[in-house]
Sequence to fold (474 residues):
Amino acid sequence: MIFLFVIGIWDQLLASSGENGSHLGEELPLWTVIPFIGILLSIAIFPLVASHFWHHHYSKVSAAWALIFAIPFLFVYQGQAMYEILHIYFLDYIPFIILLWGLFTIAGGIYVKGSLSGTPAVNTIMILIGTVLASWVGTTGAAMIMIRPILRANAKRKKKVHTVVFFIFLVANIGGSLTPLGDPPLFLGFLHGVSFFWTLSLLPELLFTAMILLVIYFIWDTLVYRNEPDQKLSTVGEREPLRVQGAFNFIFLLGVVAGVLFSGLVHLGEVTVLGIHMQIQSICRDIWIIMMGLLSLRLTAQSIRKSNEFSWFPIKEVAYLFAGIFMTIIPALAILKAGSKGALAGIILAVDTPKQFFWITGTLSSFLDNAPTYLTFFNTALGKLGLAESSIREAFAAGNFSASYPQFENLLRGISLGAVYMGANTYIGNAPNFMVKSIAEEAGINMPSFFGFMFKYSIIVLIPVFILMTLLFL
Fold:
């Protein structure tokens, strides 16, 4: 009874605090993002200068930065701060981890067996398959299905970092741009009135970007492969035909996709937990995903997971690090949501054209959660054109969105492409990036550091492609 009484008091206190939560971003100074920058720098620097320490204590470092922000935040804002913390963990972090855990667990039970030679042609085809899958089973689902087969195919090759990097570019990010199932920002757009099939109109940009990157990768991998003559010999001999073990896990994978789609189409009301309003259909989705993962664990033979070199370390690493990231990201997102009244007002007010929306949404999505960044600029675009979300919904329902609101459609195109594509710029730009990195490192691949990934690969390869795409399509 005492427990229920305390819960009831917290519900009332936090609900009243949450009413003023929208003003938080107007009050917070820009320096409150320092702990967020601190955790990003820790992820970037510690693996380079103190790798042994980082491997054993990364969770403590993440917790330390979270506390550095949370303690003074709670001291100053009290109930309002508690509301914001519970809000981001209940509505963002916990569903985020549940989805990643479900897809990671299920994909770990799918074993592609047979002779896969890591030749440039085979690698390119595998990345292409993953890119196509990403829009239909999500970037995380496609990445978890394809990363282990491509690592096994290249097990005997000496240089394979570039293969994992291009895999992150295309499978974990850019490939998810065609449907709301592909990437969380597009799913948010779907929830806010954008037609499920509108994102298919982004196909020209996807074809252009993906083909350029695949050609670059094929040439790059061919040059590297020519310097590995001994590896060619390993492909000669008796070949084992390809087959998939644990294929029934695709049913569970589709179950996860169906659960995500269900949560966006069905409205069952809401419940309030500690002052946080939670959608019942979202709770049902999370329980369903957990069930799919548990069924996969129960029904998949352990020998399959062992052959897949499955372990829980990658998902644990992501869970610990993102627990800190989600805590410290609170002021950055609040300032963004405040729009013209927040510390980043100058940036938001200066954005007008599709090109500008693409680059500002993309740049911020490289370091912040791309879903709320997308939603912030989605609403910014509506406000600049004096439009209401209901008008957009009605236009899509009537089938005349493009004709009625061509200017907003162009802005929406820039926002959507920026949020999805530029998640590939850093390890934290999109959820599967860090997980792919962790799985690759577990397989013995010495992946580049946080800044190494940016300066050796994404800035050199992606930014020129994005500039060219901007000039041609936006």
